[in-house]
Amino acid sequence: xxxxxxxxxxxxxxxxxxxxxxxxxxxxxxxxxxxxxxxxxxxxxxxxxxxxxxxxxxxxxxxxxxxxxxxxxxxxxxxxxxxxxxxxxxxxxxxxxxxxxxxxxxxxxxxxxxxxxxxxxxxxxxxxxxxxxxxxxxxxxxxxxxxxxxxxxxxxxxxxxxxxxxxxxxxxxxxxxxxxxxxxxxxxxxxxxxxxxxxxxxxxxxxxxxxxxxxxxxxxxxxxxxxxxxxxxxxxxxxxxxxxxxxxxxxxxxxxxxxxxxxxxxxxxxxxxxxxxxxxxxxxxxxxxxxxxxxxxxxxxxxxxxxxxxxxxxxxxxxxxxxxxxxxxxxxxxxxxxxxxxxxxxxxxxxxxxxxxxxxxxxxxxxxxxxxxxxxxxxxxxxxxxxxxxxxxxxxxxxxxxxxxxxxxxxxxxxxxxxxxxxxxxxxxxxxxxxxxxxxxxxxxxxxxxxxxxxxxxxxxxxxxxxxxxxxxxxxxxxxxxxxxxxxxxxxxxxxxxxxxxxxxxxxxxxxxxxxxxxxxxxxxxxxxxxxxxxxxxxxxxxxxxxxxxxxxxxxxxxxxxxxxxxxxxxxxxxxxxxxxxxxxxxxxxxxxxxxxxxxxxxxxxxxxxxxxxxxxxxxxxxxxxxxxxxxxxxxxxxxxxxxxxxxxxxxxxxxxxxxxxxxxxxxx
Length: 669
Fold this sequence. Notes:
disordered N terminus; 49 strands; mainly beta; Jelly Rolls; Immunoglobulin-like; six-stranded antiparallel sheet
């Protein structure tokens, strides 16, 4: 992860060109403290981060940002980091916010009775504050004892005019370069997305050294100087999220009571290190060339190692892990000069199986006399890339999503690269879902793409593993889908492609968008299809007959105006060579189909006769036989006991001495 760390060649040089002690005695205008209330599950919060950063960049010595993770959008799910603090709830509560992201600009009430502002109002509000005179100037600086992790903050305020009878000193500690998830990042702030898909959070509130509402002072007469010193024992982590000493900022500000920030400043941070120890800052950056073929069997890991400090590093160990597997570590004893970098190349690694892959790199110092105070940039990741399993999965691809856990994101026997939320859903996934969400309401689960979180052009791609079409005829693809938009102008698209050369070339076999894709009514609420709001796509794949291995790719493209798309009951299949179906016959039906334990054949016969019923799997193996089934003239029913069959596609052949017919049976348990 690229850090914003400046040189640590001298422990007496700080991180920012902000005010240093003593505080200026010349009257100044107010400086801005922008408190942004945010959360990792807030779709539009990345837009707030971007807007706030633009305001700060335009006024780097006068605008200071504090990002406060609070509220329901900040509550982490299992496995997610917890960025909340003990202070966020009270800060958000006093702002009167009604949505996220919201922000306060110096906690000033610009209209109405609340300090919370929509992100569209931050820039103009900051300009207003910056144009107002302040009665107090603020300066501060901090030093961190690296050995003890104690931060000492020296604060000074000079009153250029008489202030309120009492004011509160607030000292906030924020942290940059905190890696984690963030909903909406790809749509609203893609520049903060890291190569591994995570988000680079900045200006994150970690602690208020002076407590929830600050340290009260009453010496506020014109010409008065107030000096204070505060200390904080920096923990190694807060809520399990590491506190990186080298990524901390310190912001001090004067507040009238709990509201109305008068002015503030950010101070430089210096470091005290043990005698005989030098500071080194190693950083890794993936340089691996991603395979261009979906059938690639190996990859050569490469990583760039940078020394961001001026002092030389005497040596290091560098390692990688493929798909979360065992570490491969190599030790390098050649010194790496300050400000230089080198690309380290490992031996080629095998890509076993198929699916989504990624590489994780890490570098560590090997000398006890060298020290890092920023370690988060020691690790980096490659982007996710896909490969296909070398062997075919059989002569069919079947997916009904019934065997998955709720909200599971990956398909079996498929690889995917997705830019927006997608997962398996059932009627128990959320509250107040009115009906079963499987295709046509016949099953519990389907696969959902949240189109309303996909900006125009954003794609989700799902590629199946190899299907062997060499021994089958009449190849086809069927799947059920349901879709609705937010308005009548949507252009969301669903496409299906096939490739017989492992993705080198693709042929389009299905494409629907906009009104052609919609099966349900447009709604501003989350769309849950009723059983009658499904459609079935039936696609002839006859060009794949007897051609060998092929793969399928489902591509969902967002428009920014969509609602939700559901997929279910995906079946790519053909008939084994030698098995023919009498298409268009209305003499034989099978129900229920899909089946769980039993299915019933309904046959219309013009005469009494005996028939044989055989069930074949997709490779032509006879898995069930019923001999000498007596039929009478009229309607006949024969029960097939299928409890012993595995999930998948089967073919039921009914034959007499003069004719035969074949129907397809799907087993879904």
